[in-house]
Amino acid sequence: MSSISYTNFFVLLAMVVALFFILREFFTWYWKQNEIVSTLKKIEGHLEKLSHQNQGKNVPDAKSLDDNDKNNDI
C-alpha cells in the first residue's frame, strides 16, 4: 500500500468513528435514554433511603407481600 492509501484509510476510519459517536448521541437523545437512566438512579436512591429508614423495624419482606396479594385475588 502506498502512503496515499494509508491516508485514505485513516481518514475513512476517523469519519466512521465520528459518525458512530454522532449517531450514538442522536439515538440516546431520541429514545430518552439519558433521562431514563437519571430517573432510575433517582428511584434507586429513594429506595436505598427507604431501606435505611426501615432497618430495625418490623417490615414484611417481598415474599410475604406477594403471598398476601395472591390470597386477596378474587
Helix and strand layout, with pairings?
Blueprint: H1 3-30, H2 33-53, H3 62-71
How big a fraction of the residues is strand? under 5%
Shape: rod-shaped
Average pLDDT:
84
Unreliable stretches (pLDDT < 50, length at least 5) are none
Structural class: mainly alpha
Q: Give the biggest beta sheet.
A: none
Report the span from N to C terminus. Answer: 76 Å
Radius of gyration: 26 Å
What is the domain tally?
1
Q: Give the strand tally.
A: 0
Total number of helices: 3
The ordered H/E elements are HHH
User: What share of the residues lie within helices?
Assistant: over 70%
Describe, in plain words, how this protein is organized in 3D:
- By secondary structure, the chain is mostly helical.
- The protein has one domain.
- It has helices spanning 3-30, 33-53, 62-71.
- The longest helix is centred in the first third of the chain and has 28 residues, at 3-30.
- The protein starts with a helix and ends with a helix.
- The model has no long low-confidence stretch (mean pLDDT 84).
Task: Summarize the entry for a quick read.
Keywords: Membrane, Transmembrane, Transmembrane helix. With 74 residues, the chain is mainly α. The chain has three helices and no strands.
Considering the chains and any ligands shown, give keywords for the structure:
3 helices, 80% helix, mainly alpha, 74 residues
